[in-house]
């Protein structure tokens, strides 16, 4: 454990760590572009300059290992001057088209120029012209003029995704990022390159031009896309959810997440949601408030014979919700017929070596734990035979939240709709469900960003997540639905009725300043 | 006076072939060296004080001793990517005496325990490559390369590799990247090549002239070699004399030789009616010397280093009073802009910026503050990048502008050259 | 509000004050009758007042040489707007040199306070405050101005050309 002095502060760091890591550890501000903690050191942006006592030249912090007794500072005039010029070198050929650049507001060049810049540009020559709006692949667009050639994306495809699609072509100030001939940037992790791009050179086709980032709020949550359970941040505003980005979590996902997980915001948005409860009988539908619909069911369900009542669960809900609904069934309705709906069974155990898992549910382990706790052992075969024999008359189904990962959804709806009374709880709309002609009740549920809860990931790691916002305020959570169905009252708090997020500690509280909050308080790279 | 140590037999056409080379003492030192202990050779080279002839002047023996003492495979690379404008000594050596280089390399490889070596030749050197390939083949056939060389039990393989003509591949780590099949970009140091180089294995990179000189250190012994040259810069060196002199060419003189003698005696002086104006003593990246400074300059690492310039690769470019310094600098900045690899920002953007400023001055659009800006930009490129190309681009700018400022100011004010009296378009119609 | 009663002696001589006031009115009446040109009022709507060119009236979206909107949908005006009356929807343009453009640009003119911040925020001279100030309407009039109204209303005669031209900027190397 070598000790060193950073800007006058005694610091103890892990053996073998570099100066920039020590700076990170001490939360000292240091300009840098090419360094990324999840990638190898390139040392090309030449911005993380530090002065080491006894060395006449300024050094880069990202490739200098801390040695015992080293005295480092990055506040001397020499270092500041070097960084100022370094930033100016970055900017002389940068098009400065911030108005149409999607990165504006969370751009490394903007942020770091504000903090370390020269504020006195001297470039009076023509700028270098390069390719603009280059289609790199199905997910990413490149603007070479904005690129500062930090090579993070190239190193990402070489080191993390190991797909080697990107490369640096040409030389000098004509250098451009590009894809290797005949290849496209098309891998399951391609959008990480957009995240790590410190400028607006790489933009995501999905998010491009849809919002300016300063109109978005963010909040941390867990990705429900598969059983890995990556830590993520969702970005949203009144108009809905717009994107998902990974958050560093050493024990789960590191710095990255997959492209599939980034699409999990889509089913949250209002246009894909079931807004009202629907009651259908022989093709005639009527809309009711979800709470009222659930309450009405309590009488029917209580009066049903326990043997003819079943519950089908998908592994898409939180542990708390399973606890509530299973205990309602076992204790109140005395039914032991709780079935686990396993989607894509064949690829359940598969794993791509980085993050993606075949089990596309966030909480399979959690559900199995609850089923185990109540000693429930009913199989899908029991359900099938129950329906065929006509023993099962009423079926409550907690359907999939993320319908895209349930390839068997249509098939299962047909299968389950054979029961005389079907109660289907689900967040999203589904045409097939709404076309059913039997006795069907559809109750809208809330999605994972609209509730507190716990997911247990594939390693058995319990991860808590907090409510981020409310999209469909009338929708119920599964535990609220369980309470209402068992005849209890639930309390609707004000928190359920208006849009609010987990508040950041430094959030601006004045209403009229809120809109500008992200201009002032956006995080570092 | 020329001291012909390496170039003694260069006038003989037969010296190029194996037979002619052997007749004139060739491969005798290889047999001698193979009977010595490797450490003995390293000590001998160390004692001779031989310094790298490629440009940096790093002591060769010291470099060799940086190799880790283990059994990892290690590589010897011969840097024959002679890219420095003004330098053409390696070409002569490869064309006239390929076996001299090969013999030097085998001895060096034996000393450092390398079983594989590469000669990385500049892409444009088609003829030297063909000569070298032929010579390597001859050496294989004669048993100087391959398994069990001369019955010593030492195996060694050698390959000639042709570059693609990038200046940056003359930088040792850039050359290693290129040899590995990657884009020719210098690698971040540390780790240094002697620890992790080609294919992440310990690698020694030496210049053609350095490796050839090893043969003569073994032949004469370190003490005899030290008799040439100065105390701190021993030995002889080839200088590529070019520019406005009567007899440009390669001259082998002992280090410490007066620069003015090289120009006037070996080079035959200036053209009639012309006066010496400036000399670039060590290839285009070395800061320029004025005529007054040339009088005092000796061709050794210390003296030139003390004068703020460097011996570099030994390319002496003589400039007489008919040359426009602004125009010359324009050529240099264009070269460095073209050759920057584009990895480090200060160099990638700075070389382009320098070139653009200089060309706007040349086209008559310059502003007086541009001269100061040139200095500022060059100053901030210096010492800020992975390799020395940024310095190489910045140093000439700094020295040209500070030593010939009035020419630059005249050009900016008048829009034409002070010396030639013409505009850029007229100069390069 | 409280009423202050003033019952002093002086107040009994009110008629003098009234007659004085009538005198002023009479003077102006006669002046306007005999010297119509210096009259301070206008016969609106037949006559209209000429405001200074810097008057901040109704918004105009400028157009490029080809007649397309200059606006790049950067949303700086919307961000800067204190009344939050601007709503822009951006989209990707098929021409890569344009890249981003607004498919909808709406100003809720009833919320607008005509502060001119949008004009100041605009980096490309895409929005200006024009000289028109009459925006009357009867019930049912659409006071949410869209692109058609903002850029191509009839009295703009095909659109106002912007000062900022991309082609020229590219040529000069910016």
Descriptors:
heterotrimer; A: 525 residues; alpha+beta; Ubiquitin-like (UB roll); Alpha-Beta Plaits; Rossmann fold; 3 domains; seven-stranded mixed sheet; five-stranded mixed sheet; 15 helices; disordered C terminus; B: 429 residues; alpha/beta; de novo design (two linked rop proteins); four-stranded parallel sheet; 19 helices; globular
Helical content of chain B (DSSP H or I, runs of 4+): 40-55%
CATH architecture of the largest domain in chain B: 3-Layer(aba) Sandwich
Structural class based on helices, strands and sheet pairing of chain B: alpha/beta
Q: Beta-sheet strand percentage of chain A?
A: 15-25%
Question: What is the CATH fold-level name of the largest domain in chain A?
Answer: Rossmann fold
Task: Walk me through this protein's architecture.
The complex is a heterotrimer of chains A (525), B (429) and C (174). Chain A is α+β, with helices and mostly antiparallel strands and 525 residues long. Chain A has helices at 19-25, 77-91, 108-116, 152-159, 192-196, 259-262, 290-302, 319-332, 364-373, 380-389, 409-416, 431-434, 478-485, 511-514, 517-521; strands spanning 3-6, 9-12, 49-52, 59-60, 70-73, 134-135, 140-142, 166-169, 176-179, 202-204, 217-222, 231-237, 240-246, 277-281, 284-288, 309-314, 338-341, 394-398, 421-426, 439-444, 453-456, 462-465. Chain A is built from 15 helices and 22 strands. In chain A, strands 15-14-20-19-18-16-17 form a 7-stranded mixed beta sheet, with helices on one face. Mean pLDDT of chain A is 89; it is low at 496-525. Chain B is built from 19 helices and 11 strands. Chain B has helices at 18-23, 28-35, 38-48, 60-65, 89-96, 98-112, 126-141, 172-179, 208-220, 222-226, 259-266, 291-296, 301-306, 325-339, 345-362, 368-381, 389-403, 405-414, 424-427, and strands spanning 75-80, 116-121, 157-162, 203-207, 236-243, 249-254, 257-258, 276-280, 289-290, 298-299, 315-320. Chain B has a 5-stranded mixed beta sheet with strand order 6-5-11-8-9. In chain B, helix 5 (89-96) packs across helix 6 (98-112), helix 5 (89-96) packs parallel to helix 7 and helix 6 (98-112) packs across helix 9. The mean pLDDT of chain B is 94. With 174 residues, chain C is of the alpha+beta class. Chain C is built from 5 helices and 5 strands; from the N terminus they run αβαββαββαα. Chain C has a 3-stranded antiparallel beta sheet with strand order 2-3-5. In chain C, strands 1-4 form a two-stranded antiparallel ribbon. The model of chain C has no long low-confidence stretch (mean pLDDT 87). The interface between A and B is medium-sized, with 35 and 33 residues.
